[in-house]
């Protein structure tokens, strides 16, 4: 397969493609540069440059995942944008695993009321662009800010694991340090702005409990069972923490959800409910 650049006065459509090989093999060439991608490898492709791609399946298929960036976003990060194509990050590159972990997650829709909102996803793409640019020969500013981009991607990866394990006991500092192969000091430092790791995990569990309580499918569940699922020591501890965060008890929220369901036949979206509660608290003397 051969791709050739088109001509356009603005050329705003011209893109860079950051491709991860998940399965199979891909041979890519552009000019005198030629690379072979195997599982775990990542390549930067400048689609403004003539190039040739050949796929080789492992068994019956080749599986690639790509992040597409406008040239206007990535080129300013590169010291020599026209020479960056075919930059390869092999699977054993320090940043390859970190980058690969974000591909599938970026393709998933974010759940309302979670810590994976659109703005956060955009920041993740910016950090990915910084890391790839540094590998391809970034500007001095990009190289200087590399640690910040790494921190964002590691923190996002850890938060994703937390979100997927809120109803388990796998969120201790020891378990997270073991899984991500980082020191406890590094882990704690990452969550300083969040009020600490334990505070962040509790806040996310309370957010999940909030979503459960306004869900029509969970209206008959017992509060003590929800408290246990969210890893609180008792229902009274859970109720106090919930009221401190949201300004009402879990029971009061459930009653509100029941009212909305009876009157309108549906419960508003999580963000709408949170906004209404914030307005109600602000109007109270």
Overview of this protein structure:
By secondary structure, this protein is an alpha+beta fold. It has two domains: 13-164, no CATH class; 200-283, Homeodomain-like (Arc Repressor Mutant, subunit A, Orthogonal Bundle), CATH 1.10.10. It has twelve helices and eight strands. It has helices at residues 71-74, 96-107, 118-137, 140-144, 146-164, 173-180, 184-190, 197-213, 223-229, 235-246, 250-264, 270-283, and strands at residues 2-3, 15-23, 25-30, 33-37, 42-46, 51-56, 63-70, 87-89. Strands 1-6-3-4 form a four-stranded antiparallel beta sheet, with no helix packed on it. Strands 7-2-5-8 form a four-stranded antiparallel beta sheet. α9 (223-229) packs across α10. The longest helix has 20 residues, at 118-137.
